[in-house]
Structures are given as structure tokens and as C-alpha cells.
Specification:
137 residues; alpha+beta; 2,3-Dihydroxybiphenyl 1,2-Dioxygenase, domain 1; eight-stranded mixed beta sheet; 3 helices; 8 strands
């Protein structure tokens, strides 16, 4: 598996507006843009800083339950890899469990990213996601 580097850190928060304001004040002018998210999540990202703010808009959503049970915390650390299939083979050979796989493709549009998330039991509580950017010719 060829690791290309850190893509972003995702923070799970109670109040996305306040988190964006606090982080912007701390780091001097971050600009968080809303990103499309699956389900009922409010996601805002500053790609330059590599920080994503995640706020569940429903307490019944699995992420909402996680926030209620664990409070605000670093939710996910996303690393970019060269080839997601190679990464998948590596991860499973090392004995890690893949929780889920995801791509952003639709019937009308091919995927531009592919990712997989690893169960946090062997990553010391940290949800690790590996991401490949799919390049189209």
C-alpha cells in the first residue's frame, strides 16, 4: 500500500457554526464551505487546512448517537492512498476489519473518489479512512 499523506481530520461537534468560528479564530481565517453529505449530516470543510466539521442533524442517526455517547471528538482521520484495491488487500492481510466501503459515483457519473473505513478496535479508537482519488482520462 502506498500512502500519499493526510487528506483531512474530521471533527464531530454539537454546533457546526460555533466550531467553524472557533477554529477560524484559532488558525486565523479558515473558510469552511458546506459539502454534500450522505444522510442527515451537516459537513463543512476547509480543504486548505484539511479540517472537516461534522454535525449530525438528527440524534437518531448513528453519528448523532455517537456524538451523544462520546461527546465532541476527532471523528475520523482520512489518509490518501495511491490505489484503494492495493490498500484493501494490505489492510485485510494485516488483520484489520473494514467497516464499509464508499465511492461517490452514480448511475450517471463515474466515481471520483473511492474510500474504505477501518474498524477502530485496532486503531486505538480512531476511525481511519483510506481514500483514493480516481483520475479520469
Amino acid at each position: 500500500m502506498k500512502l500519499l499523506g493526510l487528506n483531512r481530520v474530521e471533527l464531530l461537534v454539537h454546533d457546526a457554526d460555533r466550531a467553524a468560528a472557533d477554529l477560524s479564530a484559532l488558525f486565523g481565517g479558515l473558510e469552511f464551505a458546506r459539502e454534500p453529505a450522505e444522510g442527515v449530516l451537516d459537513c463543512r470543510v476547509d480543504w486548505r487546512a484539511g479540517i472537516e466539521i461534522v454535525h449530525p442533524e438528527s440524534e437518531t442517526h448513528p453519528v448523532g448517537r455517537l456524538l451523544r455517547e462520546r461527546g465532541e471528538h476527532v471523528f475520523t482521520v482520512v489518509f490518501e492512498v495511491e490505489d484503494i484495491e492495493d490498500a484493501k488487500r494490505w489492510v485485510t492481510r494485516q488483520g484489520f476489519e473494514i467497516l464499509y466501503e464508499f465511492d461517490d459515483g452514480t448511475d450517471a457519473r463515474p466515481a471520483t473518489i473511492r474510500q474504505l473505513s477501518i474498524a477502530p478496535d485496532r486503531t486505538h479508537g480512531m476511525l481511519v479512512t483510506l481514500l483514493e482519488r480516481v483520475h479520469r482520462d
